[in-house]
Amino acid sequence: MSLLTPELLHSLHNLPLAARKAAEGFLAGHHQSRRQGAGLEFSQYRPYQPGDDLRRLDWRLAARSDRYYLRESEVDTSLTVHLLLDASASMNHRDDNGLTKLDYGRLLLAALAYLAQQQGDAVSLSILHPGGLVHLPARPDARQLPRIYQALQNTTGAGRFPEAALLAPLLVRRQRALTVCLSDLYEEEAEIQTLLARLRAVSGEVLLLHLLAGNELNFTYQGSVTLQDLESGQTVQLNAEAQRAGYQQQLREWLRTTAHAARRQGFDYHQLSTAEPLDAALREFLRRRQAASG
């Protein structure tokens, strides 16, 4: 299990540092455990081997991690990566570890942006909330990461998922790209998956990261509790023990239906929990990225 838990990364109160630590910790652990003939190939980042050209060594990473990696430089493996963050009010739900889904989302997308830039990709960020679309167009320059970190740090969750008219700028025909959307998929009329289907039509691959809090997945509440819908404000009082079995059955059915619908539309669907390290999502991103650039 990764020592870099999401709550530890969040406690750094420094998003650029947390993103770098998450990404480099994942890479170090992956290369350390990789076996011959199996595992994920990281197309522009590989361990140093005797005889390699030292001019291609990433000395800064070596100084930070005491591990030696070479940067590959094939231009044709570069890609445009579009990061989308659902910033509706339901993302303010807080897990037992103290993190909201939005906290986790900021950490994960910051780490993905860092990984993508290390791959030589042009990265964009779109933050989706009802107040309007925050969009940073894809740029390959070194100043893009600080722009993305700043936008993520300034993000707050509010309201419902934005109306289609606000999202129109995202659907301008693009070059081939990998779109990564992080959302809890709380929607009224499939508006999130409708947007992603349109993005897939104009851009190509879509990786859908479905994020839920650990206490949502496991229903860890005890006794008499009052639960609130963060988007509508409606509340319900219930006895946790009496409702647990029915809740978990309905949740399992919703997750099955949601995953099936996403995959039927051609998305690469992956479920995440705020109680788990970022590693699974980073692994899925690199796997999907390798397929998209191939």
Characterization of this structure:
Pfam families: DUF58. InterPro entries: DUF58, vWFA_dom_sf. This is DUF58 domain-containing protein. Residues 44-252 form the DUF58 domain. The chain has one domain (80-293): Rossmann fold. The chain is α/β, with parallel strands linked by helices and 294 residues long. The strands form 3 sheets. The chain has a 6-stranded mixed sheet, with helices on both faces. Strands 1-2 form a two-stranded antiparallel ribbon. A two-stranded antiparallel sheet has the order 8-9. Helix 2 (15-33) packs across helix 4. The chain is globular and about 65 Å long. It has helices at 6-11, 15-33, 59-65, 101-118, 144-153, 191-203, 214-218, 240-264, 279-293; strands at 45-47, 69-71, 80-86, 122-129, 132-139, 177-183, 204-212, 224-228, 235-239, 268-273. The protein is 40% helix and 21% strand.
Strand content: 15-25%
> Which range best describes the helical content: under 10%, 10-25%, 25-40%, 40-55%, 55-70% or over 70%?
40-55%
CATH architecture: 3-Layer(aba) Sandwich
Q: Class in CATH?
A: Alpha Beta
Secondary-structure content class = alpha/beta
Number of domains as seen in the coordinates? 1
pLDDT averaged over residues: 84
Gap from first CA to last CA = 30 Å
Strand tally is 10
Oligomer: single chain
Describe the largest sheet: 6 strands, mixed
CATH topology name, in short, is Rossmann fold
Q: How many whole angstroms does the radius of gyration measure?
A: 20 Å
Question: DSSP helix count?
Answer: 9
Order of helices and strands: HHEHEEHEEHEHEHEEHEH
Q: What topology, given as strand order, has the largest sheet?
A: 5-4-3-6-7-10
Poorly predicted tracts of residues: 31-43
Shape: globular
InterPro entries: DUF58, vWFA_dom_sf
Domain DUF58: 44-252
Protein name: DUF58 domain-containing protein
Pfam family, one: DUF58
